[in-house]
Amino acid sequence: MLLFLLGSLVLLLAIMIFRTVQLSAREPDVEPSTPLPVNLDEATQRLSRAIQFKTVSQQDASMIDGDEFHKMHRFLAKAFPLVHEKLSRETVNHYSLLYRWEGKNPDLKPIMLTCHLDVVPVEPGTEADWDHPPFAGAITDEHIYGRGTMDVQSGVMAILEATEALLQQGYEPERTVYLGFGHDEEIDGEFGASEIGKLLQERGIEMEFLLDEGLPVVEELIEGIKSPVALVAVAEKGYLSLELSLTAEGGHSSVPQGTTSIARLGKALHRLENTPLPAKFDAHLTATFEAIGTGMPFYLRFVMANLWLFKGLLRRFLATIPATNAAIRTTTATTIFESGVKENLIPTLARAVVNFRIHPNDSVESVIAHVKKAIGDDAIKVEKLFGHIEPSPVSSITNTPYRQLSRAIREIFPEVAVAPSLMVGATDARHYTGISRNIYRFFPLRAEQSDLDRVHGTNERLSIQNYGEMIQFYARVIRNTTG
Ligand SMILES: [Zn+2]
After folding, report:
1. Which of 214, 263, 415, 434 is the most buried (most CB within 10 A)?
2. What does the pLDDT look like over 191-228, one tens digit per residue?
3. Locate the Peptidase M20 dimerisation domain: which residues (predicted)?
C-alpha cells in the first residue's frame, strides 16, 4: 500500500514537472522580422511636433480648444504626404479623424487600428516638476518628453509612420485598413470614438480585427522578476454605481428609539464589503497565468503549469493584492455616505453610493442581485445611478486575428510572453463593440514599474528606441492581418 502511494506520488510529481517543462516551450518560435526602413530621427522629430499641440481634454467637454486639433490635422497632412494621397480621410464630429486605405480584395472584411488625439491636462502646480516642459516635445539622448508620449499621441504617430513607410515600399493590403483617431477618449469618448463607431455601423461595416491602445509590455510583472509580458486586453470591465438608501424613525437624540438609519445602513455596507463578488478561474485567466509562467523561474512556472492543483491558493493570493484583485473579480467600493444635519437630531434618511467595476463574468443585474442578497435587509432601497455600463464582450484568444496579433508582438519583442488580460479602466474600444467581435487592447510601450506613474503624471516620456519598436510593430500588425 505504502509503495503504491509512493509510486502514485512520484508519478504525479513527474507529470507536474513535465507540464512545467512543456509550459516553457508552449510559445512557438517566431523569426524576428526584417525591419521596415524608417528614419527614426526624422520620425522622432515629427512626434516632437505632434506633442506640441495642446489637444487637451478638460473634464468639461465644452472647454475644448478646437484650434489645436485643427492645427494638428493640418500638420498630419503635411507630415505624412503618401498617407494623405493614397488614403481617404474624413473628419468626424469636427475633431476626430477616420482614414480608409482601400484593400485589393473587397470580399474580405476590413481591419481597424485606433488611438486617440487628446491628452489629459497637466495638473496645475506640477509644471515645474517636469524635467522638460510638458508641451515642448523635448528630445534628449535617449527619450522624448511630453504629454502624449505614452498616452497616446505616440500611438497615433507610430500608426501613421508605419502606414507611410509601407506605402513607400509599395505595400498594398488585401483587406481594407481603417485608422480611427478619436478626440475625447480621456473624457469617455462620447463625441469622438462613439461617433466614429456609429458612422461605421450605419455604413454596415464589420471589422475582422480591431486594435485599440491598451495595456503595455510590462517588464517586471512580479517585483524582482524580470520577465517581460505583453498584456493584451481581450475585454474591459463594466461600470455601475448603486445608491443604497434607508428611511427609519427619526426624532430627538435625547430619546432615541431602535437602531438609527445610520447604524443600520452602516451595518449593511459592512456586510456588503465583506461579501465580495466571487473570482472565477475561467479559461482566460488560466491562459493568462500559463502565458505569464513561460518566462518565470522554475518554482513559479511549476505553479502556473499546474493550476489544476494551485488555482485555489493562487486565487487567495491574488485577492490580497489590490491590482490583481481588481483583475479577477467585480470590485466593490463605497464612495459616498450621507446622513444627518444636526448633532442632536436623529436623521430619518441615510444614503450611500457604492461603485462597482464589473468583471465580464458578471452583469449589472447580477451585481444588483448579489448586493440585495449580501445586505439582507429589505428596508434598504437599492437603485442604479445614471451612467452604468455593462462589461464588454470577451474577444477570442484562439482565433486567427489573436494569433496574428501575438505573432506581431513577438516579431518585434522576441523575448516577451503574450498574455491575454482584462482592462480594468475604460478605453475608446467600448465604442467599437458594434463593429467588431475581435477587439484587442494593447499598446507596444515598454513599461517599467516606475514608468507607470508617468502616464497621466509628471515627466511622461518615451524612449526613442521604443518609439522605433512601436512603428515596426504597427507595420507588422498591418502586414500580418492584411497580407
Ligand atoms: Zn489613452
Report:
1. 214
2. 999 999 999 999 999 999 999 999 999 988 777 677 88
3. 234-380
Confidence of residue 281 (pLDDT cuts 50, 70, 90): confident
The fold of the 40-229+391-482 domain, in CATH, is Aminopeptidase (3.40.630)
410 CA distance to ligand 1 middle (Å): 23
Q: Residue 295's pLDDT band (boundaries 50, 70, 90)?
A: confident
CA distances (Å), 307 to each of 21, 213, 285, 287, 300, in order? 14, 30, 10, 10, 11
Instruction: Name the least confident of 110-114, 158-162, 214-218.
Output: 214-218
* Secondary structure (3-state) at 111: strand
* pLDDT value at residue 2: 63
The full set of domain ranges for the chain reads 40-229+391-482, 236-384
Which of 258, 259, 262 is closest to 352 using CA atoms? 262
Task: Classify residue 116 as exposed, middle or buried by CB count within 10 Å of its CB (0-12, 13-18, 19+).
Answer: buried
- Taking the centre of ligand 1 as the mean of its atom positions, its distance from the CA of residue 413, in whole angstroms, is 22
Q: Kindly give the pairing relationship between strand 417-423 and strand 229-236.
A: parallel
Distance CA 285, CA 263 (A): 39
More confident residue, 303 or 93: 93
Question: If you measure from the C-alpha of residue 213 to the centroid of ligand 1, how many angstroms do you get, rounded to a whole number?
Answer: 7
CA distance 44 to 37: 14
Neighbours of 36 (CB within 10 A): 18
Residue 243 — very low, low, confident or very high, per pLDDT cuts 50/70/90?
very high
Distance 17 CA to ligand 1 centre (A): 41
Distance 133 CA to ligand 1 centre (A): 20
Cell representation of residue 123: 495638473
Average pLDDT, the chain: 92
What does DSSP assign to residue 329?
S
**Chain-centre distance for alpha carbon 344:** 49
DSSP structure class, residue 126:
-
Distance of CA 117 from the midpoint of ligand 1 (Å)? 9
Residues annotated as catalytic are 118, 185
Distances (CA, A) of 71 to 66, 248, 291, 424: 9, 59, 43, 33
Separation between Cα atoms, residue 188 and residue 428, nearest integer Å: 7
Length of the chain: 483
Cα torsion through 196, 87, 437, 190, rounded to 10: -20
